[in-house]
Write a structure and sequence with these properties.
- The chain is α+β, with helices and mostly antiparallel strands.
- Among the domains are: 39 residues, no CATH class; 44 residues, Ribbon (Cysteine Rich Protein), CATH 2.10.110.10; 48 residues, Cysteine Rich Protein (Ribbon), CATH 2.10.110.
- The chain contains nine helices and 17 strands.
- Strands 5-8-9 form a three-stranded antiparallel β-sheet.
- The chain is elongated and about 85 Å long.
- It starts with a helix and ends with a helix.
- The protein binds zinc ion (8 copies).
- Keywords: Cell junction, Cytoplasm, LIM domain, Metal-binding, Repeat, Zinc.
Length: 422
């Protein structure tokens, strides 16, 4: 009974970002309009993250929901009014007085997110260790990067069945189990600390007979790269370079406090992007972003971008598809059993292809059917027929013959070429 209710409540967030202009397509997109079931704009076919969506609470609610029922509930707050968990993002505002002649003005820099640590100097230093274009300073390229990565790395439809399209009660159940499992076993948030402070970290209790703190941190094995360079004995788990004395490192509780990362090395194993807000998924010795962790566990539909929890799905063109989502990228007609053409990795029905993408024959000036043989040469195309692939001068058929191309024309001989081009 409970499931029934859940299914009825399913809605898609059609309203978010509505009308926002597209960064990529500029004037060509009339404004964001969410496709009925794909997670893209109906007008320009780009994702929401490519559109200039004014900041909203959506992102904080999404991350809030991700941390709900996890050990990271300290990072979220529940509104009394609606009980929806919201991410308590650590916004860091740095002010520095600028002395002008008489009065003092204040320069402010707002970081839309900063590591949730008490020590602000540490958070500041963490930021400095990131590339400039990745620092989420409000209004900067870095803030836009963060927003885009939130959309890419943590799709709402990877954690919330209500953001998915037409799931069956059984699919909802499976998804809930899947989400519960990764929340309990895989999901984590990075921890920024000075390596020398980590000795007493939880989970790293010293062996009773040890007493030597230096054994608690990872030191590269001696035969790996020779002697330990001077300065620091702490190594980044990713790049294997040592940590600079006094610089903060990122730790991942799921990985154990014997591993640490340079702030800029705390990236997803698959996409290599900085893990947004240090939110990671730890699996078999590797850090992943949410999307790529889920991809390593479940097939993802290349049509709607949702994970597939149904046993019935199809594989085509090296990708997975819900049966009902193997559709023409242009007109959404179902392609199962139909002839289709791949255009930029997207399937397209034959009529749409012929209408929008088919190449034109230089001989008869008609579109070339994708199923029909053609001759292509330096960006020009011909029907491979004796009526079309012919000498532009004497009309001799050139199939299987030597020919001389000139700007979309072809000739059988120097003589014919001379006659037409001189
Ligand atoms: Zn676009
Ligand atoms: Zn658009
Ligand atoms: Zn590193
Ligand atoms: Zn990734
Ligand atoms: Zn799908
Ligand atoms: Zn179509
Ligand atoms: Zn032709
Ligand atoms: Zn000729």
């Amino acid at each position: 009974m409970e499931l029934e209710n859940k299914v009825k409540k399913l809605t898609l967030g059609h309203e978010e970002g509505s009308g926002a202009p597209c960064f990529k397509c500029k004037d060509k997109c009339e404004g964001f309009e969410l496709h009925f079931w794909r997670k893209i704009c109906r007008n320009c076919k780009c994702g929401l993250e490519e559109h200039d969506v004014p900041s909203s609470n959506e992102d904080d609610r999404k991350v809030g929901k991700l941390f709900e029922d996890t050990k990271y509930t300290a990072l979220i707050a529940k509104l009394k009014t609606d009980g929806i968990p919201t991410y308590k993002r650590n916004v860091m505002i740095l002010t520095s007085p600028v002395a002008a002649k008489k009065d003092v003005s204040i320069n402010t820099v707002t970081y839309e997110w900063a590591p949730p640590v008490q020590n602000q100097t540490l958070a500041r230093r963490y930021m400095e260790l990131l590339p400039k274009e990745r620092q989420p300073v409000a209004g900067s390229e870095g803030a836009q990067y963060r927003k885009k990565q939130l959309a890419k790395q943590l799709p709402a439809h990877d954690q919330d069945p209500s953001k998915c399209h037409e799931l069956s009660p059984n699919e909802v159940k499976q998804m809930e189990q899947f989400v519960k499992k990764y929340k309990n076993e895989v999901l984590g948030v990075g921890d920024v600390k000075l390596p020398k402070e980590v000795g007493a970290a939880p989970g790293e209790a010293a062996k009773p007979d040890s007493g030597n703190r230096s054994t608690l941190t990872t030191v590269k094995s001696a035969d790996d790269k020779g002697a330990v360079p001077s300065g620091s004995a702490y190594y980044c788990f990713r790049c294997k370079e040592n940590m600079k004395e006094g610089d903060p490192a990122v730790y991942a509780e799921r990985a154990g406090y014997d591993k640490l990362w340079h702030p800029s090395c705390f990236v997803c194993f698959t996409c290599n992007e900085l893990l947004v807000d240090m939110i990671y998924f730890w699996k078999k010795g590797k850090l992943y972003c949410g999307r790529h962790y889920c991809d390593s566990e479940k097939p993802r539909c290349a049509g709607c971008d949702e994970l597939i929890f149904s046993n019935e799905y199809t594989q085509a063109e090296g990708q997975n598809w819900h049966l009902k989502h193997f559709c023409c990228f242009d007109c959404d007609c179902v392609l199962a059993g139909e002839i289709y053409v791949m255009v930029n990795d997207k399937p397209m029905c034959k009529p749409c292809y012929v209408k929008n993408h088919a190449v034109i024959c230089q001989g008869c000036h008609n579109a070339i059917d994708p199923e029909v043989q053609r001759v292509s040469y330096t960006g020009f195309h011909w029907h491979a027929s004796p009526d079309c692939f012919i000498c532009s001068c004497c009309s001799k058929c050139l199939i299987g013959q030597k020919f001389m191309p000139v700007e979309g024309m072809v000739f059988c001989s120097v003589e014919c070429k001379k006659k037409m081009t001189s």
